[in-house]
Amino acid sequence: MCRIHVVGDYDQESHGASPAVLGDPRTNQNPALLSFGLLFFRWHNVVASRVQATYPNWPDEEVFQRARRYVVATLQNIIAYEYLPAFLGEGLPKYDGYKPDVHPGVSHVFQSAAFRFGHTLIPPGIYRRDGQCHFRETAMGYRALRLCSTWWDSNVRTTSVDVLTENTLEELLMGMSSQISEREDTILCSDVRDKLFGPMEFSRRDLGALNIMRGRDNGLPDYNTVR
């Protein structure tokens, strides 16, 4: 994992280490995304260690690529056999082999509009729990970290959210795994409706409005036409 070289003033005393560079450019957007990125980064290192132990004569690049294949497969397995069955309420059909004539991408309508339903599932805050499942409170005494105060600033020591040190990563993962998402409906929490990306970007954007505008910018037809 690399660090971003921040040009200009950066108060490391209050903000901690500079932002991390992982596979997703949105990694540092909020503590939850950063936690998942670091989780798979750690899993990659575990797999790479196993590959290297099995094939000690392999060069680093070959070890990296083999480990990468396992990590990608892990994520795909979670999506296909855990997330989708839970969301759809039924399992996927039995896999009967690779079909080279099937387009592997997703439709324009799904990517630009339909899959945005997940924004309604976002809670306004993220819990942290220790190994005994006890809540870790914020510096202000609250149980949850508000998204509106941590956009693009996951290492803010003033709010005790330094994901890259201590046990905060494990506590965030424990908290999220025990936290229920918001209801799948037409309502978005205020942290993404009124305070999207917050003070670090000096903005108060509305994710719901952005979703609507994305559909217009991409020239999507109306719902009745699509269905």
From TrEMBL:
The keyword Metal-binding applies. GO terms for biological process: response to oxidative stress. PANTHER family: NAD(P)H OXIDASE (H2O2-FORMING), OXIDASE/PEROXIDASE. The keyword Transcription does not apply. PROSITE patterns: PEROXIDASE_3. Heme b binds at H119. Keywords: Heme, Iron, Metal-binding, Oxidoreductase, Peroxidase. GO terms for molecular function: heme binding; metal ion binding; peroxidase activity. This is Uncharacterized protein. It holds the Pfam family An_peroxidase.
